[in-house]
Amino acid sequence: MSEVRIKKKDESEIDTILASDIDFDGVINFEKPLMVKGKVTGEILARGDLYVDENAAVEAKVEANIVSARGKIKGNIKARSKVELFSSAVVTGDIVCPEIEIESGCKFNGYCNMGGKKSDDDGNKINNNGNNNQKNYEYQDGSDYQEGA
After folding, report:
1. Which of 43, 50, 138, 139 is most exposed, with the fewest beta carbons within 10 Å of its own?
2. Residue 1 lies in a domain
3. CA separation for the pair 144, 84 (Å, rounded)
C-alpha cells in the first residue's frame, strides 16, 4: 500500500491568515481561502477553503469548500469538495464530504460519510445527472445533515 502525501498549501496563496495569537469566539463567514494559526471556537461557515495550521485549535462546526487540517479540529465537518488530514492532524467529530485524503499518523475519531457529491460555491451538486433526491444523514452527536440543503 502506498503512503498518502498531501501537498501543503503555500501561505502566499491564502488571502487571510488568523495569526497564532488570535483567539476568536463566534461565527466566521468567508469566501476566499482562510488559514487558522490560532484558536477558533464557534462556527465556521464558508464558501472558501479552510486551512488549519499545525499549532491551531478549532472547536467549531465547520462548513467549507475544502477543509485542510494539520492541527486540531473538534466538531463536525462538512466539505463541499474534499477534506485533507495531514499526519499531524487531530480531528474529533464527524465528516461529510465527497472526497477525503488522510496521511498516515493522523488521528481521526468520528464517522465519515462520503455519500454526497461535489457541489459548486452555491451548493449546487456537480454531475448529478438530473437527480435532485436529497438524503438525510445523522452525525454521531445526533444532529442532522441534509445533503443538498
Report:
1. 138
2. no
3. 23
Proportion of the chain in helix, strand, coil states, percent, rounded to 5: 0, 50, 50
36: region left, alpha or beta (phi > 0 left; psi from -120 to 50 alpha): beta
- 149 occurs within a structural domain: no
Q: Are 102 and 108 in contact (CB under 8 A)?
A: yes
The residue behind cell 477534506 is: 83
Residues 68-104: pLDDT tens digits? 999 999 999 999 999 999 999 999 999 999 999 999 9
Q: Into how many domains does the chain fold?
A: 1
Say how far apart CA 136 and CA 134 lie, in whole Å.
7
- Domain with 27, as residue range(s), is 11-141
- Is the pTM higher than 0.85? The answer reads no
Flag whether 147 is in a domain.
no
